[in-house]
Write a structure and sequence with these properties.
The protein is α/β, with parallel strands linked by helices and 394 residues long. It folds into 2 domains: 16-262, Type I PLP-dependent aspartate aminotransferase-like (Major domain) (Aspartate Aminotransferase, domain 2, 3-Layer(aba) Sandwich); 264-393, Alpha-Beta Complex (Aspartate Aminotransferase, domain 1), CATH 3.90.1150.10. The protein contains 12 helices and 13 strands. A 7-stranded mixed β-sheet has the order 1-9-8-5-4-2-3, with helices on both faces. It has a 3-stranded antiparallel β-sheet with strand order 7-6-10, with no helix packed on it. Helix 6 links the parallel strand 4 (133-137) and strand 5. The protein is globular. The chain starts with 15 loop residues before the first helix and ends with a helix. Bound molecules: pyridoxal-5'-phosphate (PLP). Pyridoxal-5'-phosphate binds at residues 65-67, 91-92, 94-95, 137, 139, 163, 165-166, 187, 189, 200.
Length: 394
């Protein structure tokens, strides 16, 4: 029996240019983002400017993590204690955590069969809850119909925060993910699309939101030292009203990120080539369901999801076990016990008034997930696909 032997958690090395730039920062001793010489832009400043250009947005703030960006995004948007925030029931724990951290209350919206947020449930809950904020996770890189999402936001006056932790580099109808909403947040945690261990971006086109976000991030009164930022006037009142929740990016991590950002589009193509190989293998089995990706979706497949719709919990556990024995590590979103990165909504027990979401439970009960690190070759992906299909079909 064929066996796979590589690690599912091994990312590629940091590009040599990033290592050299990081060493340069360490030699200089100027690791703090505001520790610059006269007329010097720090690595963090340059990173923000480069990401603003990449996204085609005016304002970018680099900060300490994706979850931190989500938290200050809500604060900067004016979320108050007790406010309701619509969000996906199928997302990762930092999302409801960030909502909780701003004192707000998540209103969980169902997942649909295509693994995106359920747009009918969204529409219903937007109408019923009276929520004015919507934190949309493009969970595992799946972009919902953004045309319809924007129509719903318009109809109910929703302030949209896009969680782009899995869609850095992705597009909908040719337009970058993260440029639809009022604010977008990204993560540079090791398993996302660019890797500095930890890190986050917050982007927006609203000057007042960015001014507050910069103050929140711990800029002291050094806001004039931000370049992908609104002019000084935007800070006039805001600087007195906005608490400092320290969570800055530093020059060492920015130095590591800049060459990766320059390579991002190439990396996205490499992910997708691997995805298409796995997808073709899964489509060869009658027992595996893998939703076709919409024409308008320019996705970035740093992971792959598929369902075993006719399998019981015991059968799925058996598939996980037998794949694992052959070196293929799958995650399951239907497990009763939260493991690894797969906690299900009902394990976030701090949420008051937890809803019953039978549809979400049904979809998640047969949903499997696999990371696609770029240390896997296309041949590796063919082998993994073969192993999974063999295990599922036998
Ligand atoms: C990783 C992730 C985040 C938050 O990122 P961190 O940088 O780990 O705080 C938010 N949402 C989703 C869907 C994620 O996967």
């Amino acid at each position: 029996m064929k066996q796979f032997t590589k690690s599912f958690t091994q990312q590629e090395s940091i590009p040599e240019a990033g290592i050299e730039a990081a060493v340069e920062v360490m030699r200089s001793g100027r690791l703090h983002r505001y520790n610059t010489l006269p007329d010097e832009k720090s690595e963090t400043d340059l990173l923000e400017l480069e990401f603003a250009e990449y996204q085609g947005v005016p304002y970018v703030l680099a900060c300490s993590s994706g979850g931190y960006a989500l938290h200050i995004a809500m604060r900067a948007a004016g979320v108050k204690a007790g406010d309701k925030v619509l969000c996906n029931a199928f997302t990762l724990a930092p999302v409801p955590g960030a909502i909780h951290n701003s004192g707000a209350v998540p209103v969980l919206v169902d997942v649909a069969e295509d693994y995106c947020i359920d747009l009918d449930d969204l529409e219903r809950k937007a109408a019923e809850s009276g929520a004015k904020y919507f934190m949309l996770s493009h969970m595992r890189g799946h972009l919902a119909d953004m045309d319809r999402i924007m129509a719903i936001c318009e109809r109910y006056g929703l302030f949209l925060i896009e969680d782009c932790a899995h869609t850095m580099g992705a597009t909908w109808n040719g337009r970058k993910s993260g440029t639809f909403g009022d604010v977008a947040c990204f993560s540079m945690q090791t398993y996302k699309h660019i890797n500095s261990g930890e890190g986050g971006f917050l982007t927006t086109r609203h000057p007042n939101v960015m001014a507050r976000a910069i103050m929140h991030s711990g800029s002291y009164m050094l806001f004039e030292r931000h370049f992908a930022a609104p002019p000084t006037e935007a800070f006039e009142q805001i600087r007195y009203e906005t608490p400092n929740y320290s969570g800055r990016m530093d020059n060492l991590r920015a130095a590591i990120l800049r060459p990766q950002l320059a390579d991002l589009d190439t990396q996205c193509e490499r992910w997708n080539a691997r995805y298409r190989i796995l997808e073709a293998a899964f489509n060869s089995s009658d027992k595996i369901r893998i939703p076709a990706r919409p024409e308008k979706e320019g996705f970035v497949a740093s992971s792959i999801q598929f369902s075993l719709p006719n399998f019981s919990a015991e059968q799925i556990q058996d598939v996980l076990k037998r794949c694992g024995e052959r070196g293929v590590i799958l995650k399951w979103f239907g497990d009763d016990v939260p493991r690894d990165y797969t906690s299900r909504y009902d394990s976030w027990r701090y949420i008051e008034e937890m809803p019953q979401l039978p549809k979400t439970e049904k979809v998640l009960s047969t949903l499997l997930d696999m990371r696609i690190p770029l240390t896997f070759t296309e041949e590796d992906c063919a082998l993994i696909g073969e192993i999974i299909v063999e295990v599922v079909d036998s």
